[in-house]
């Protein structure tokens, strides 16, 4: 399976500021996914990031608030902009475990997450 | 929206088999059943997946009913480290994952 390095692992930020989260994968992957997990809740997909195109956002999430970059097949960033306490969550990136043949995939690999607290 | 229904919580005695049920009555023919778990403060971990046949790996077994409308994840000998939230997800291969509420499994000594 792919190995994901996600940074930072945690941060405490002032409201009104922005934080950029990095996700580095040890192999080339077509799609990268960004999720949010609010306290005590399940994971919610924010957007899907493909290399060379704009990210596709899920309902309730917009590019101005969560801009995403995907400069190559091994790296992506998610920015949480103009933060408020309601943005306090764990943010996770995820990639497909096998790129070459999706029908042989073994699910998806997740990063360890970024625990964000906005004060 | 998640297409699965799971009990919110279950307990299991250490060393016993943990059987986690999942209903997915609206599953489509091209959708797989995936199981993930999330141990506190970690990212979700893939456990197993299947289409229609029962599957077994080093972590667990997956039993899918013949009509594919439900499945059971079996941890044959639960340990304290298996305490986690277990998510059952149905989706076509290569698609994004949509997480429901999951089952919080508590393994007790």
Structure description:
The complex is a heterodimer of chains A (119) and B (109). Chain A has 119 residues and is an all-beta fold. Chain A is 0% helix and 50% strand. Chain A has no helices and 11 strands. In chain A, strands 2, 4, 5, 6, 9, 10 and 11 form a 7-stranded mixed beta sheet that branches. In chain A, strand 4 (31-37) and strand 5 (43-50) form a beta hairpin. The model of chain A has no long low-confidence stretch (mean pLDDT 90). A 5-stranded mixed beta sheet of chain B has the order 1-9-8-3-4, with no helix packed on it. Chain B has strands at residues 9-13, 18-23, 31-38, 45-50, 55-56, 61-64, 70-75, 84-92, 103-108. The mean pLDDT of chain B is 93. Chain B is mainly β. Helix content of chain B is 0%, strand content 48%. Chain B has no helices and 9 strands. The A-B interface holds A 1, 31, 33, 35, 42-45, 48, 92, 94, 96-97, 102-103, 105-113, 115 and B 34, 36, 41-46, 49, 87, 93-94, 96-102.
């Amino acid at each position: 399976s792919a190995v994901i390095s996600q940074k930072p692992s945690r941060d405490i930020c002032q409201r009104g500021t922005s934080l950029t989260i990095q996700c580095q994968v040890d192999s080339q992957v077509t799609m990268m996914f960004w999720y949010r997990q609010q306290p005590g809740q399940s994971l919610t997909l924010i957007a899907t990031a493909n290399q060379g195109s704009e990210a596709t956002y899920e309902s309730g999430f917009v590019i101005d608030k969560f801009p995403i970059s995907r400069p190559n097949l091994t790296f992506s960033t998610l920015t949480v902009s103009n933060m408020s306490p309601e943005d306090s969550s764990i943010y996770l990136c995820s990639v497909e475990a096998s790129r070459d043949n999706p029908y042989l995939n073994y699910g998806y690999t997740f990063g360890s997450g970024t625990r964000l607290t906005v004060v | 929206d998640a297409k699965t229904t799971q009990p919110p919580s279950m307990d299991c005695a250490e060393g016993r088999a943990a059987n986690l049920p999942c209903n997915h009555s609206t599953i489509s023919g091209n959708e797989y059943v995936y199981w993930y778990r999330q141990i506190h403060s970690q990212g979700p971990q893939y456990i197993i997946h299947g289409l229609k046949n029962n599957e077994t790996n080093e972590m667990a077994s997956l039993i899918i009913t013949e009509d594919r409308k439900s499945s059971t994840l079996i941890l044959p000998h639960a340990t304290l480290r298996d305490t986690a939230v277990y998510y059952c997800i149905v989706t076509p291969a290569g698609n994004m994952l949509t997480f429901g509420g999951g089952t919080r499994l508590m393994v007790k000594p």
